[in-house]
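QA checklist item 7 of 12: single-chain prediction sanity check.
[x] sequence parsed
[x] length recorded as 183
[x] structure emitted
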Amino acid sequence: MGEMKERMLRGELYRDNDAELVGERQRAQALCAEFNRSEAGEGRDAVLRELLGKLGEGSWIMPRFQCDYGYLIEIGANSFLNYDAILLDCAPIVIGDDVSIGPRCQLLTALHPMDDHELRRQRWETAAPIRIGNNVWFGGGVIVCPGVTVGDDTVVGAGSVVTRDLPSRVFAAGNPARVIRQL
Protein backbone atom coordinates (compact mmCIF):
# COMPACT_ATOMS: atom_id res chain seq x y z
CA MET A 1 0.00 0.00 0.00
CA GLY A 2 1.37 3.36 -1.03
CA GLU A 3 1.82 6.47 1.08
CA MET A 4 -1.18 8.40 -0.30
CA LYS A 5 -3.58 5.51 0.26
CA GLU A 6 -2.26 5.08 3.81
CA ARG A 7 -2.74 8.81 4.43
CA MET A 8 -6.28 8.70 3.00
CA LEU A 9 -7.24 5.75 5.20
CA ARG A 10 -5.83 7.53 8.29
CA GLY A 11 -7.87 10.67 7.52
CA GLU A 12 -4.77 12.75 6.81
CA LEU A 13 -4.06 15.07 3.90
CA TYR A 14 -3.46 13.07 0.72
CA ARG A 15 -3.40 13.67 -3.04
CA ASP A 16 -6.19 12.03 -4.99
CA ASN A 17 -4.17 12.00 -8.22
CA ASP A 18 -1.84 9.32 -6.81
CA ALA A 19 -1.50 6.48 -9.34
CA GLU A 20 -2.63 3.78 -6.90
CA LEU A 21 -5.77 5.72 -5.93
CA VAL A 22 -6.55 6.59 -9.56
CA GLY A 23 -6.27 2.89 -10.45
CA GLU A 24 -8.59 1.89 -7.60
CA ARG A 25 -11.16 4.51 -8.67
CA GLN A 26 -10.96 3.26 -12.27
CA ARG A 27 -11.65 -0.28 -11.04
CA ALA A 28 -14.66 0.96 -9.06
CA GLN A 29 -15.91 2.97 -12.05
CA ALA A 30 -15.71 -0.13 -14.25
CA LEU A 31 -17.64 -2.21 -11.70
CA CYS A 32 -20.23 0.57 -11.26
CA ALA A 33 -20.68 0.71 -15.04
CA GLU A 34 -21.14 -3.06 -15.15
CA PHE A 35 -23.67 -2.89 -12.31
CA ASN A 36 -25.56 0.01 -13.89
CA ARG A 37 -26.03 -1.77 -17.23
CA SER A 38 -26.86 -5.18 -15.74
CA GLU A 39 -30.30 -6.69 -15.24
CA ALA A 40 -31.68 -7.26 -11.75
CA GLY A 41 -30.74 -10.57 -10.16
CA GLU A 42 -27.72 -12.67 -9.32
CA GLY A 43 -25.36 -10.94 -11.76
CA ARG A 44 -26.04 -7.52 -10.28
CA ASP A 45 -25.56 -8.85 -6.73
CA ALA A 46 -22.28 -10.48 -7.74
CA VAL A 47 -20.94 -7.17 -9.03
CA LEU A 48 -21.95 -5.43 -5.79
CA ARG A 49 -20.27 -8.11 -3.71
CA GLU A 50 -17.07 -7.62 -5.71
CA LEU A 51 -17.28 -3.83 -5.45
CA LEU A 52 -18.39 -3.21 -1.86
CA GLY A 53 -16.70 -3.97 1.43
CA LYS A 54 -19.94 -5.53 2.70
CA LEU A 55 -23.45 -6.05 1.35
CA GLY A 56 -25.79 -7.47 3.98
CA GLU A 57 -28.32 -10.19 3.35
CA GLY A 58 -31.46 -8.92 1.63
CA SER A 59 -29.97 -5.52 0.76
CA TRP A 60 -30.18 -4.08 -2.72
CA ILE A 61 -29.26 -1.02 -4.74
CA MET A 62 -31.06 0.41 -7.75
CA PRO A 63 -29.03 1.71 -10.67
CA ARG A 64 -27.57 4.21 -11.31
CA PHE A 65 -25.04 3.82 -8.49
CA GLN A 66 -21.68 5.61 -8.25
CA CYS A 67 -18.85 5.44 -5.74
CA ASP A 68 -15.14 6.25 -5.55
CA TYR A 69 -13.61 3.01 -4.26
CA GLY A 70 -16.40 0.70 -3.10
CA TYR A 71 -14.38 -1.33 -0.62
CA LEU A 72 -14.86 1.37 2.06
CA ILE A 73 -18.66 0.95 1.91
CA GLU A 74 -20.45 -1.42 4.30
CA ILE A 75 -24.19 -1.93 4.00
CA GLY A 76 -26.09 -3.93 6.63
CA ALA A 77 -28.94 -6.36 6.14
CA ASN A 78 -32.26 -5.50 4.47
CA SER A 79 -31.19 -2.02 3.39
CA PHE A 80 -32.16 -0.24 0.18
CA LEU A 81 -30.50 2.49 -1.89
CA ASN A 82 -32.82 3.95 -4.50
CA TYR A 83 -31.92 5.34 -7.95
CA ASP A 84 -28.90 7.61 -8.52
CA ALA A 85 -27.12 7.12 -5.19
CA ILE A 86 -23.65 8.69 -5.01
CA LEU A 87 -21.33 7.50 -2.25
CA LEU A 88 -17.93 9.21 -2.25
CA ASP A 89 -16.09 6.74 -0.04
CA CYS A 90 -12.65 8.27 0.51
CA ALA A 91 -13.31 7.29 4.15
CA PRO A 92 -15.55 4.50 5.45
CA ILE A 93 -19.28 4.75 4.87
CA VAL A 94 -21.17 2.37 7.17
CA ILE A 95 -24.90 1.93 6.60
CA GLY A 96 -26.82 -0.10 9.20
CA ASP A 97 -29.60 -2.65 8.88
CA ASP A 98 -33.08 -1.83 7.53
CA VAL A 99 -32.02 1.54 6.08
CA SER A 100 -33.99 3.15 3.24
CA ILE A 101 -32.13 5.75 1.19
CA GLY A 102 -34.28 7.70 -1.26
CA PRO A 103 -33.44 8.55 -4.87
CA ARG A 104 -30.54 10.87 -5.67
CA CYS A 105 -29.05 10.82 -2.17
CA GLN A 106 -25.38 11.64 -1.71
CA LEU A 107 -23.06 10.46 1.08
CA LEU A 108 -19.87 12.52 0.73
CA THR A 109 -16.75 11.85 2.81
CA ALA A 110 -14.24 14.04 0.90
CA LEU A 111 -13.02 17.33 2.36
CA HIS A 112 -10.81 19.98 0.76
CA PRO A 113 -8.72 22.61 2.57
CA MET A 114 -10.81 25.76 3.00
CA ASP A 115 -8.24 28.24 4.27
CA ASP A 116 -5.13 26.96 2.52
CA HIS A 117 -5.79 27.88 -1.09
CA GLU A 118 -2.45 26.57 -2.30
CA LEU A 119 -3.01 23.09 -0.81
CA ARG A 120 -6.41 22.97 -2.49
CA ARG A 121 -4.88 24.08 -5.80
CA GLN A 122 -2.33 21.25 -5.47
CA ARG A 123 -5.24 18.78 -5.01
CA TRP A 124 -4.60 17.85 -1.38
CA GLU A 125 -7.67 16.62 0.46
CA THR A 126 -8.82 14.69 3.53
CA ALA A 127 -11.87 12.56 4.27
CA ALA A 128 -14.06 11.82 7.29
CA PRO A 129 -16.27 8.73 7.76
CA ILE A 130 -20.06 8.64 7.63
CA ARG A 131 -22.09 6.30 9.81
CA ILE A 132 -25.80 5.66 9.33
CA GLY A 133 -27.59 3.77 12.12
CA ASN A 134 -30.22 1.05 11.85
CA ASN A 135 -33.75 1.68 10.52
CA VAL A 136 -32.90 5.14 9.17
CA TRP A 137 -34.92 6.64 6.30
CA PHE A 138 -33.60 9.38 4.00
CA GLY A 139 -36.10 11.08 1.71
CA GLY A 140 -35.07 11.84 -1.86
CA GLY A 141 -32.11 14.11 -2.50
CA VAL A 142 -30.63 14.05 1.01
CA ILE A 143 -26.95 15.05 1.18
CA VAL A 144 -24.83 13.82 4.10
CA CYS A 145 -21.57 15.70 4.65
CA PRO A 146 -18.21 14.31 5.81
CA GLY A 147 -17.86 13.09 9.38
CA VAL A 148 -21.60 12.82 10.11
CA THR A 149 -23.24 10.09 12.19
CA VAL A 150 -27.00 9.53 12.02
CA GLY A 151 -28.55 7.63 14.94
CA ASP A 152 -30.92 4.66 14.81
CA ASP A 153 -34.57 5.11 13.79
CA THR A 154 -34.02 8.65 12.47
CA VAL A 155 -35.86 10.10 9.47
CA VAL A 156 -34.34 12.86 7.32
CA GLY A 157 -36.69 14.86 5.10
CA ALA A 158 -36.27 15.10 1.34
CA GLY A 159 -33.73 17.63 0.10
CA SER A 160 -32.05 18.05 3.48
CA VAL A 161 -28.33 18.70 3.88
CA VAL A 162 -26.98 16.93 6.96
CA THR A 163 -23.92 18.83 8.18
CA ARG A 164 -23.85 17.61 11.81
CA ASP A 165 -24.56 14.41 13.72
CA LEU A 166 -28.22 13.56 14.26
CA PRO A 167 -29.36 11.62 17.35
CA SER A 168 -31.52 8.52 17.33
CA ARG A 169 -35.30 8.64 16.92
CA VAL A 170 -35.74 12.13 15.49
CA PHE A 171 -37.17 13.69 12.37
CA ALA A 172 -34.74 16.21 10.88
CA ALA A 173 -35.06 18.39 7.80
CA GLY A 174 -33.73 21.53 6.16
CA ASN A 175 -30.48 23.07 4.99
CA PRO A 176 -28.68 22.62 7.21
CA ALA A 177 -30.78 19.80 8.63
CA ARG A 178 -32.07 20.41 12.14
CA VAL A 179 -34.14 18.28 14.47
CA ILE A 180 -37.83 19.06 13.99
CA ARG A 181 -39.24 16.60 16.53
CA GLN A 182 -38.67 13.38 18.45
CA LEU A 183 -39.99 10.10 17.01
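[x] summary fact logged: The chain has a mean pLDDT of 96.
[ ] second reviewer sign-off
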